[in-house]
Design a protein that fits this description.
There is one protein chain. The protein is of the alpha+beta class. The protein has 2 domains: about 100 residues, Histidine-containing Protein, Chain: A (2-Layer Sandwich), CATH 3.30.1340; about 170 residues, Beta Barrel (Lipocalin), CATH 2.40.128.260. It contains 2 helices and 18 strands. Strands 5, 7, 10, 11, 12, 13, 14 and 17 form an 8-stranded antiparallel sheet that branches. It has a 3-stranded mixed sheet with strand order 1-2-3. The protein is rod-shaped and about 115 Å long.
Length: about 280
């Protein structure tokens, strides 16, 4: 009987003890996770490296979980170290994010190309001009015969279209026996876009018995020397070409009736009297 009375007591005591231990273990486990999380959170907020981080710390089965944003990788690594060093922590799950990499500084915008005043434009006229047949205000076309470069970049390519105006056209004998022809350029087309330009005026005058002068005005330099002779005879005879920095030209021939003639394809050099601003473009 004594043995039987002890057995139920022992059996009941064992059940009771097991139940208490299970309950205590469960409570202890929950409290441990909560304690770990709070301790890690406090240490992160106190550490000088990580104190400004906007993170939230939890723990599950001893594993520390960190969520939020870290300002940089060093801060992220420091928070992981704090969690690993926490007593009772069995691992770390770092779910923090880092800010997106800063974009590379934008390249400075390309600068426009400025062709300065004083630059010479060598062009060939697309049509014949004459002191006898041309009219003041008449428009003529020309083509750039020599590219213009600025700081190693081709600003005005060879072949660009140019528009000019006949400023003065006077047939010899009508005014003091002089024949006059004055030209200037007014616009240029560069890479498909048209620009207004201002140039010095190219003047050529015939006086008396065939005496001839050539000069540039309106900002250009003196005409200089004509290469080639002036002769009577057929149209196009003795074509002159004045080429050089700052030099102007009205190339032409003195015909039998002493008029100034500029055949098509004659080379003329005009000088920009105002700068020309062009958009940036790749070097050629």
């Amino acid at each position: 009987m004594r043995t039987n009375s002890v057995f139920p007591f022992a059996f009941g005591g064992t059940l009771c003890l097991a139940t208490i231990l299970t309950f205590t273990t469960g409570c202890s486990k929950g409290a441990s996770d909560d304690t770990i999380a709070k301790d890690v959170q406090s240490k992160i907020e106190a550490d000088p490296v990580t104190k400004d981080s906007q993170v939230n710390v939890t723990a599950q089965d001893g594993k520390v979980i960190i969520k939020g944003a870290a300002k940089d990788q060093a801060t992220q690594q420091k928070m992981e170290q704090i969690a690993r060093d926490e007593p009772g922590a069995k691992g770390v799950d770092d779910e923090t994010t880092l800010p997106a990499a800063a974009a590379a500084p934008a390249a400075p915008p390309p600068q426009p190309i400025i062709v300065p005043a004083g630059t010479g434009l060598v062009v060939t006229v697309d049509q014949a001009l004459s002191s006898k047949t041309s009219q003041a205000g008449q428009t003529f076309l020309a083509t750039v015969a020599r590219p213009v470069t600025v700081e190693g970049v081709t600003a005005i390519p060879k072949g660009s279209s140019v528009t000019g105006t006949v400023i003065t056209a006077k047939e010899k004998g009508k005014i003091k026996g002089e024949g006059q022809l004055s030209l200037a350029l007014t616009s240029i087309t560069v890479r498909g876009k048209n620009y207004s330009i201002q140039t010095g005026t190219l003047d050529s005058t015939v006086k008396g018995k065939g005496k001839r002068t050539a000069a540039t005005t309106g900002g250009g330099a003196a005409g200089g020397a004509l290469i080639g002779g002036l002769a009577g005879g057929g149209k196009g005879a003795g074509i002159g070409a004045l080429v050089g920095a700052g030099a102007g030209l009205v190339g032409g021939a003195l015909t039998g009736n002493k008029q100034i003639e500029i055949p098509a394809e004659t080379a003329l050099t005009f000088t920009l009297s105002s700068s020309l601003t062009l958009p940036p473009h790749p070097s050629e």
